[in-house]
Sequence to fold (314 residues):
Amino acid sequence: MENTPPVIKSISADPDSVFPGDTVNLSFDYFDAEDDSIDIQWTCLVGSFAKDPISRIQKWNAPKIPGDYYIQLHISDNADSIFNVDSIRVTVTDRPGTFIDLRDGHTYKWVKIGQQIWMAENLAYLPYVSSSIGDPSGYFVNGYSGYGSSTEESKQTSNYKKYGVLYGHESALGACPPGWHLSTDEEWKTLEVFLGMDPAEAEDFRRESLKSKDIALSLMSDSLWRGNNSSGFNAVPGGTISRYYSMAGHDWYWELSGPGSQALYLTPFYFPNYNENRCRAIYGYESSGILHIGIDIQRIDDLEGFSVRCVKDN
Fold:
C-alpha cells in the first residue's frame, strides 16, 4: 500500500504583526493517514528560532528591520521522506499592529508603550448575552436590551463595535485571549510612570490631588473622546453597570450608564495593601464649567460591569 504524505491543515502566528526584536509563537496542525512520526522544520531567511520544550510551539525572534517576512514550515514523513510545505507571513513594524483572537476570529489593534504591549481597543469577547443586568459572571453590550437573546444581533450594534463588551467582575477574570492577561496594579503603574507620572504619585492610592491630566489625555481617544491619544492606547468610555443600595434599606438595584459617560473603568486587579479588588478609572468630564481629567483608582464593590483591556504576556 502506497504511503501518503502528511498534510498541513493549518499554520498560525501569534501575533502576526510585531515590533522589531519581539517574539512570535508559531504553531500548526496536520494530518497523516498512516499516523507516522514526522520531522518538523521551520525556516526563515532572517530572525532566529527557539523551540518550546513543552509543546509543539516554535518561537521566532523577529529581526530589527521592519518588513514582511515569510516563515516556512516543512514537515516530512519519516516512513519514506515524503513531505508537505506551507508558509505564513509575519509583519515586523515600528507602528501599532493587530492580532486575531482565535476563540471568535475577532481582530484587535495593539500598541507597544514602553516595554508593554496593550490592547488599543476594549475587549469584545462575547460568548453569550447575559439574561439580566447584574450578573457578576455576565457579559453585556451597552444599550442592547435583548438580554439572553441573540449574540450575533448584539454584535451588530454600534455600541458593540465602538466600545466592546461590559464584563461582570467574575467573567472579566477569564475574558482575555490566550497569551494575554488582565493588568496588575504594578503594570498600570509601569504604564503611568513611562508616560510621565512621578513614581511616588503612581504609588499613591488616594489620587484626588494628582496632576495626571496630561497622562490621561495621552491615553484617551481623539475620535470617540476628547483626548489626544499620543500614546496610542485609544481609551474610549463604554459605560458601566453599577449597583446601589435603595433608600428602603433592603434592596439592590442595577443601573446601566450610557456609553460616552464620564469615565472608562478598566481591568480589575487585586490591590494587596487594601485587601480588596480595584480598577483603574480614566475620567474626563466637565462640571460647572470646569474640565476634570485624570486617572483614578476605584474599588469595584459597586461596579459590576466594566470595560476590559488586556496586556500581552511576557
Notes: DSSP finds five helices and 21 strands in the chain. The chain has a mean pLDDT of 84. The CA atoms of residues 285 and 291 lie 6 Å apart.
